[in-house]
């Protein structure tokens, strides 16, 4: 399986590309500029340079020849509301539409921990645009006929992954290493039982493979 990782230069994306390249599968890393390519070339991964603010057609061209797409891009905490709209909402929706154009059925979305409408209403004012963007991107994906999985990570940390999580439709808030989320993504890609599923993930005591079996 060949997997396009959108947002590959992010911390989750880098872990994910490494996991893919260490397996029998193949990663295609979508990055914004050539300066980001060296990490992926060292892993032997193909790179494609496309900015998410470009067209659906540009993203679809990047998705040619792949079997699955993972959207793990984000505008980041230090950008304004404009980038939240352009990347987390419009970029996500353009990638979903690009998957259709490129005839890629498998799509995994990395979302926010809680994107229900109540979460938008209850979020701090500075966080509302992000939660709203993720809410509508998730809803757009779920309204398609793509083989989707929506993953809602807890508070992300840079701790080393433990390989153990708590995953369910709803779990108590908590932290989770980015490396473990990358492993959850990889294991979801190779587990068709996660298709059509949406779940929250935090650190826990269950191995990732076993946790995904109970989703």
Automatic annotation (TrEMBL):
Residues 7-190 form the NAD(P)-binding domain. Coiled coil: none annotated. Transmembrane segments: none annotated. It holds the Pfam family NAD_binding_10. It comes from the Bacteria. PANTHER family: FLAVIN REDUCTASE-RELATED, UPF0659 PROTEIN YMR090W. This is SDR family oxidoreductase. The lineage of its organism: Bacteria, Bacillati, Bacillota, Bacilli, Bacillales.
């Amino acid at each position: 399986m060949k997997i396009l990782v959108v947002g590959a230069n992010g911390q989750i994306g880098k872990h994910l590309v490494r996991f893919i390249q260490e397996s029998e599968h193949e990663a295609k890393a979508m990055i914004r500029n050539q300066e980001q390519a060296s990490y992926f070339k060292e892993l032997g991964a193909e790179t494609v340079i496309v900015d998410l603010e470009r067209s659906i057609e540009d993203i679809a061209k990047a998705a040619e020849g792949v079997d699955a797409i993972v959207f793990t891009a984000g505008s980041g905490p230090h950008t304004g509301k404009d980038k939240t709209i352009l990347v987390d909402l419009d970029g996500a929706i353009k990638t979903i539409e690009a998957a259709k154009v490129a005839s890629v059925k498998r799509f995994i979305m990395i979302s926010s921990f809680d994107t229900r409408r109540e979460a938008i209403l209850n979020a701090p004012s500075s966080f509302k645009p992000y939660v709203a963007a993720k809410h509508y991107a998730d809803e757009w994906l779920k309204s398609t006929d793509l083989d989707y999985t929506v993953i809602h990570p807890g508070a992300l940390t840079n701790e080393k992954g433990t390989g153990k999580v708590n995953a369910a439709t709803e779990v108590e808030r908590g932290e989770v290493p980015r490396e473990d989320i990358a492993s959850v993504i990889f294991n979801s890609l190779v587990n068709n039982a996660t298709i059509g599923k949406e779940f929250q993930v935090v650190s826990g005591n269950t191995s990732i493979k076993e946790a995904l079996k109970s989703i």
